[in-house]
Amino acid sequence: MKSAYRISLFALLAASVAIAAAGPKSANADGPSAPPAGPAEMETMPGMGPHDHHHGNMALHMKWTTLRAETPDDRARADALAATLRASIEKYKDWHVAMDEGYKPFHPELPLAEYHFTNYGRAIEAMFHFDPAKPTSLLYKRTAEGWELVGAMYTAPRRFSEDQLNERVPLSVARWHAHVNLCVPKAHPWLADWTRFGPDGSIATPEACEAAGGRFVPQVFGWMVHAYPFETGADKIWAR
User: The pTM is what?
Assistant: First the structure.
């Protein structure tokens, strides 16, 4: 299972490597050639769920916003965001509606704990404008009948500062994250030592990656934050 997942992941990382190799301008771009929801699946493999970000070496490859002191305004704003999101995605409990409106599952063939259905049109919109009623991805669990909606994911450009992310979702309530410091094997991913490469690998610096014959990717895609608006309590709604 992990082998199939890692080879699929290699294809995503290879695309990011191509962007990075094109030069500094392309490496920092936030264009649609790098679908924001792809790497989010890194967190949803068994043992790498949304509440278990520090499994193995994964902490080496995660960048988090700093948790701020909460204010009454933050709490009110987060509650309003959750209410808006809950109302806007209620219809997607019927996953057919989600598919009809452009949300596509990311690697549904893999046995994941949670699946991201991503709307790449909304991903592009999120690079320029934040609409809490239009999340980039919907989060589903597989059931015998199909798919069960459990939450959603917002995205933001990698160039955003923490203050800009705070304007979207308060950093005292939620922690945005990004996937960073990845070393990708240049060829033959099925032969690679995945205890060293990839999102759970031990290599996390350009020097170590070069020595291993890999290609270093400073950051894959932009910022992300998960929300579970059908839960109760901020700690469960804004998993961090």
Answer: 0.77
